[in-house]
Structure formats: structure tokens, C-alpha cells
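Handout, section B. The chain below has 346 residues.
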Amino acid sequence: MIYRVYTKKDTFITSEPTITGQYRDAGRDPILEISQYPDVNNITRYKSMLIEFNSNDIDTALNLAGNNTFSSSLNLYAAEATELPTSFSLAATAISESWFAGNAQFADEPITNTGVTWTERRPGVDWTTAGAPTHSAYYNTSTFINSDDFDLSINVTDIITAISSSTISNNGIKVDLEKSGEVLSSLSSSISLKYFGGNSHTIYKPNLQFDWDDSVYITGSANTISSTPFKVFTKNLKDEYKNKDKNRFRLSARPIFDTTTFTTSSVKTDYVLPEGASFCVKDTYTNDTIIDYSIGTKISCDENGNYFDLYINTLKPQRFYYFEFKVTVDTSTVYFTDDKSFKVTI
């Protein structure tokens, strides 16, 4: 099963003050920045992202997972990446103090700091450590090669587990360049990453994804697909779904060349996909993968055939989506695209 929650608040902070010594806040910016660069005085400067999810939303996800072992990942979608080294790593760390996002944008003039900056966690209240102090024990990294697409999906299960058990308070997650990579190779070197934020009004908003395997596999009297070619499609797909609740999708699997043995009576042969098949969700217009293959997208099977469940509220409304299926038969992995799209509405 897949369940997603979306940001309560997000922003980015910078270690570079203005010429008057002020630090800007960016609580309403649609783009979140992570960077490292030399300023005009060859002083190394940083931009770091702060992001927080609602505790009640996290509890809801964990209650849905129940006793199943879950994993949780922070997903960010790249808007722009420039001045990149051959490889680099980003780090996600639990923030140890509360903060207020504010209502300003980074480029506002005159500067009206209403929220968190590099030095203050809210106006008039300093961080104990500039740049947002963190719990060093909850530190996860993701490495990129310059040929990657730079979308970030980083495992933060340990952070979420610590929050849910009240080991640490939910003050959000700081995302920045990995500490070991925060020394520029030369004063002219820099790196700039921009990600869509919660204020971006796109389908690419940051989210916290929970994955757990609640699949079952009971074939009953059905035959299992054992060779190619075959086809797969969703047989109960509707044109529209409200972005709430959970929906069960039923699949039909059928060999292209059926080898049914004919008898004097009419007999229908039922087929199911082999265990381990999974689905993903893609945006119809962009073909971007919105929900990728994972342990949470395994396809189940019962006496009525294959099916999978999906929380529709994990998908942004007013968009069209379609399913893709991945099936391994013998030693071959094949992919099928459902011919029909569906719209998610409010």
C-alpha cells in the first residue's frame, strides 16, 4: 500500500546576509533552494531547505499501516539543477527546534522578515545554532551522479519512527548538501538545486510517502500466466474518482494465444498474474511517474482474480492519470500500459 501526506510548511534559508546585515526568509516561495557557492568576498555560502509534515497526518498513515513493516521516504521534485559537480550527496536530518515559516518571499523588497531565517527560528528568537540545529543521530543521505534527473527520494523511516514514538519532537526535516561535501573544491566552484515547494501550485509538491506490503496472493482455481505474450488491463476503471478514500482496482490477465482445450461444454479459463507483479501511476499529459514501483504497489490476488488498492488522495486533483504494470514471467520482465486514463476530482 502507498499513502502520502503533503507539507504543512516549507521554506529555505541562506547563510548570506544582505549588505545591511539582514537575513531573508522565504516562507511563501514556490521554489525551494539548496546550494553552495562563494560570495563576492569568496566566503562559502549555503542555502538549506526546511520542511515539516503535520503530526496528525503522520499518525494517520501509521495507523493505516497497522502492524505491517513500513518505510517512509521524503520525495522532492527538481525544478532546476545547475553548476553541478560529477557527483554529490544530499542529506536529510531531523530538526531539533521549532520554527515558523513566515509569509515573505525571498526576493521581497523591502525585506519584511516574518519567519525563519539562517539566524532566527522565528522573528526575535534565535536558533541555538545558526542554520537550524539538527539531531545528528537521524541523518540520511542520497547520492547523485550528474546524469541523474535530480528528483530526490530519500529514506527517512528512522526520523518518522522517532517522531511517532515521541523520541524526538516533530520539528521537520532539514535538507542540504551532505556535510562531507560542503567544502568547495575551489573558490569558483558552486552547486545550485531548486525544487518545487508546497506553494508551487503544481502536481510536484513535496510529499512524505509511506510504503508497506499488505498484498495477498491466493490463486484458487485460476491458472497463472506462465509465458508471453499476454495482456493486462484494469476492468473496473471509471472515468473519474474523488480525491478521498480508498479504491480497489480489478485486473484482467489473458494470454494473447489461449491454449484452452475445448470440450462438449463451454468452459471459461481464468488467468492471474504471477506473484510479485506491481503497478505504478503516471500523469497522462506529462508521462511523469507520480507513484513508482515499490513494495507498496504489489498486486494482490484472491478468488476473484488480481487487484490492488489505492488511496486516491495521494494524487493531486484536476489531473488525468493512467496505470502501468510490471510483470515478471519466467526470466522476462514486461510492462503494460493501461489504455484508459482517469481523472481525479475534488
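Note. The CA atoms of residues 90 and 177 lie 4 Å apart. Compare this with the example in section A.
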